Amino acid sequence: MYYKLTLKNSAVCFVSLKSNKCIIDSLSFYQPLSLKGKIYKFFMGSYFILLRNLGFIKSRNLLSEGDIIKFLISLSFDVQSSDVCSYPMFLSSCGHKLIIKERNNTYRKFGIYDAQHPCINEIKAYVIMNDRISNFVASSISDISISSNIVSFRMSMEQESSYKNDSFYEYKAINRSLIELFNLSRDDSRILLSTIEKLSMKLSELNLQRDFYENIKSYLESLSVTKINVPLGFVHNDFKIWNIKSCNGKIHIFDFESSYASGLPFIDLINYYIDPLIVKGNSVINIIRFLQCDRFSKILDDYSSRLNACSDISLMIILSLVCRFIYHFENGNEYSALIYSGVISGLLMDY
Questions:
Q1: Residues 6 or more apart from 236 whose CB is under 8 A from it?
Q2: Going edge to edge, which strands form the sheet with 250-253?
Q3: Of 137, 228, 126, 234, whose CA–CA distance to 179 is shortest?
Q4: How far apart, in whole angstroms, are the C-alpha atoms of residue 67 and residue 65?
Q5: Cys-Cys link to 177, which of 136, 212, 281, 342 (CB 3.0-4.6 A)?
Q6: Is it the case that residue 4 has pLDDT exceeding 80?
């Protein structure tokens, strides 16, 4: 038996009521940052355990395994009863990505329609990382299947990983992991000007507010005389606290769907610290204060020393903020894009 739990972003978690462990595993797909969200998750977990043990409770959200299979097939997922087996499942908000949590720290991911390319992208990322990492851990993949209609693969870990209760991990562990990830495809021969030109072209293609666009355009044009080299490398591009787990003293990084091999070095660092602040409802002013505080300066100095390139940290931060703005704008995350635009505008006032 399953309970269909619709999350705030319209994604769906199919909570398996087979056992208390299945309920806990199902709710691991939901990682709230706010206190309100954590309280909601606690009470929902208690409710599901009660629902499982008291069979006479009725709910329109209760579904049988057969109902789930019919529903998934109607969405064009080619699944059978052997794929489901009362496992916890997560369906993305667009209904094109399905994740099934199987036994023994193993997950199976399916992508259809516009979720096929991100799944293929993630497969490529795991291939790149194969036996080349030591500061963090990543899943091993198997049973890769790529067709014109659907992409699927399995991800597995030898050791169990779990989410931490803390908001952030120790910054040096994050920095070590991100630098190693970045260096997987590092290229130190790129001139910064070529990256700036690409950003300018991308911004010109977006339907932006005129004042904001002119502000960024003017700043990027002022950098046209810059002839320094800046390394480009592997970027996760969705590096957030909910895409990281703790595993035997190391960081377990997953969800590489948005990753690419030629990004700026500070993008993931900005993503990790700023996106959660936006989710928690922090204002533009508070985020700018965070970027300028001593604590974050310490984090940046450590990261920059490990990167061993490009001494102009302020320049890298603004360019990385622009990249994050573009990411959110193109993915329809209007609120996050709005906050990023405000942060960028506020920082550019100092230039």
A1: 181, 243, 253, 256, 258, 259, 268, 271
A2: 136-137, 250-253, 244-247
A3: 234
A4: 5
A5: 136
A6: yes
**The amino acid at 32:** P
CATH of 171-348, one of 3.20.20.70, 1.20.272.10, 3.90.1200.10, 3.40.50.200: 3.90.1200.10
- Break the chain into its structural domains and give their ranges: 2-156, 171-348
**C-alpha of 203 from chain center:** 22
CA 29: distance to chain centroid? Answer: 13
**158 token code pair:** 């030898």
Q: CA–CA separation, 150 vs 314, rounded Å?
A: 43
At residue 58 the predicted structure's pLDDT band, cuts being 50, 70 and 90, is: low
Length of the chain: 351
Cα distance between residue 56 and residue 78, in whole Å: 33
| CB-side neighbour CA atoms (13 Å) of 264 | 26
The β-bridge relationship of strands 150-156 and 140-146 is antiparallel
Q: Which helix (H) or strand (E) holds 121?
A: helix 116-129
pTM of the model: 0.88
Instruction: Classify 234 as helix, strand or coil.
Output: strand
Q: Write the pLDDT tens digit of every residue in 126-165.
A: 999 988 899 999 999 999 999 988 999 999 987 776 776 5
CA geometry: angle 321, 327, 330, nearest 5 deg: 135
Interstrand relation of 97-101 and 89-91 (parallel, antiparallel or unpaired): antiparallel
3-state secondary structure of 349: coil
